[in-house]
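U., I forgot to send this yesterday:
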Amino acid sequence: MPAESNDLESRVTALEEQMRVVTADAAAARVLAGGADRDVSAMQDQLRAHTKLLNALRETQVEHGDKLDGINGRLDNLEGRFDGLDGRIDGLEGRFDGLDGRFDNLEGRFDGLGGRIDGIDGRLDNLEGRFDGLDGRIDGLEGRFDGLDGRIDGVAGGFAKVGADIAQMMAVLTGLTEKARNDD
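Result:
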């Protein structure tokens, strides 16, 4: 029996040694599994953050697209109004050209007639008053054009802000991407 006892003792000692190795391996495996779970959880959190950011960018794009559509509609309306004003001014210029021709004719006919010329002078004074009135209206239109310039400048400022917002979002997205790469 002593030989069996030594053999049994050596086998138990070997098994105990293997059990220590297996226990150490199991503990290391649990540590690795815990680390892998944390890594997977962190990656899932980052993926959720990226998804939220992309969704926010999409919403912002849609909002900006709607705003741009509204601005384009307003600009189209303004262009139509400018075209209408151009047509009206062209019509007025034609009428003024016609009046100039008529006055030239009248001046030729009334050179020798002082009394009639005085009457014509009165009519000319009246027309000058009308021209002054038209000048006032044209000044008013110029003021409106200046106002439109200011509004267009405001729209340009809005575009600049949209560009800055997009650049800021891209910087955040780049930072998150770099962080995700560094975490790997």
